[in-house]
Amino acid sequence: xxxxxxxxxxxxxxxxxxxxxxxxxxxxxxxxxxxxxxxxxxxxxxxxxxxxxxxxxxxxxxxxxxxxxxxxxxxxxxxxxxxxxxxxxxxxxxxxxxxxxxxxxxxxxxxxxxxxxxxxxxxxxxxxxxxxxxxxxxxxxxxxxxxxxxxxxxxxxxxxxxxxxxxxxxxxxxxxxxxxxxxxxxxxxxxxxxxxxxxxxxxxxxxxxxxxxxxxxxxxxxxxxxxxxxxxxxxxxxxxxxxxxxxxxxxxxxxxxxxxxxxxxxxxxxxxxxxxxxxxxxxxxxxxxxxxxxxxxxxxxxxxxxxxxxxxxxxxxxxxxxxxxxxxxxxxxxxxxxxxxxxxxxxxxxxxxxxxxxxxxxxxxxxxxxxxxxxxxxxxxxxxxxxxxxxxxxxxxxxxxxxxxxxxxxxxxxxxxxxxxxxxxxxxxxxxxxxxxxxxxxxxxxxxxxxxxxxxxxxxxxxxxx
Length: 466
Known about the structure:
Shape: rod-shaped
Strand content: 15-25%
Order of helices and strands: HHEEEEEEHHHHHHEHEEHEEHHEE
Helix content: 40-55%
Structural class: alpha+beta
Number of strands: 13
């Protein structure tokens, strides 16, 4: 590396306004770097801690778009520059990768030195640059917060709907259980009044234990026919509320032959209270099972929300991608009515280093877009596979597909094809930032036979998250 002369700097149009002292200060602040073909001067997404001034040669400015590197500009004229953004923006990063295509000489000046010189030479200009950077960052932060609030509101409404169903079912079951418990106690008293023996009661309880839920293969018509037969038998023997007793017994698999055995065991006087006792016992057991299922559903939803929000976890950690996908689908269940969800998860998937809460936001955005595209009917396909270095997530939908004039713009900020009031145009841009900038991964979209597929490639291990 060598020192750049003030004479060479004086020839650059960019520096025409600087005097000899300022040119000398600039030359002393930096160092001349010589790079050969294919060398990388700076990388996309890395902190822009140096200001690069081209003295000779050519660099291509390359950005990663989908699965390909795309040339977005060229530095071929002495005096062109790149980077140095941290001189006025502490969070500034390189917007592209600088790749040498012809042997190049560049003056590299640390951003902190550039900041000192710029503040001394043209303080108003530096003030304008800082204000511009802060304004842009504030706007970006505001719209991201708004997007998060909109998504949170949507998820909260859906979650309330999902929790309300099992909670309401549990409440109804508890009310009915109170009634069944009362009937159970009354039937026990009536059995005692009928004077059945202890041996008869033991035999009755054994007959009750023979009953089980109706096999899944039995048709509703067959169940209805058996209930009608039981009702006729009960009415012939003057059993009170025969339709209630028949319904409970039929649902548990009882038939007329079973009722005949009960009548033999407890006698004519005990048949009515015995069958009421069995029916009440069966109803109470069924209602308890319903309460258990309902409360378990609520518990599962709470667990899914906890997993989705990642409230109890550190930022960057070893993460199971499929867990995040599953919890996102659970939280978004209210949006999936009429849509078939298929899961294709490879076995023995490795955990990755990531920020789980941010990845769940990506899954939410992609699934939400897929659901909108299918308009209430279709198949949502979730696939997770792995290579030696990456975990690849695919989210496919059977909607009409992304038009040719749209597919190249879907990751641009504020770009949307949705009607007014649906979407903000922020979701896919935020998803790209999270995947590419925060996790050093890649996100792309393509059309396949009958599907629109968003692919997210995440490195198993990297130092870029955070």
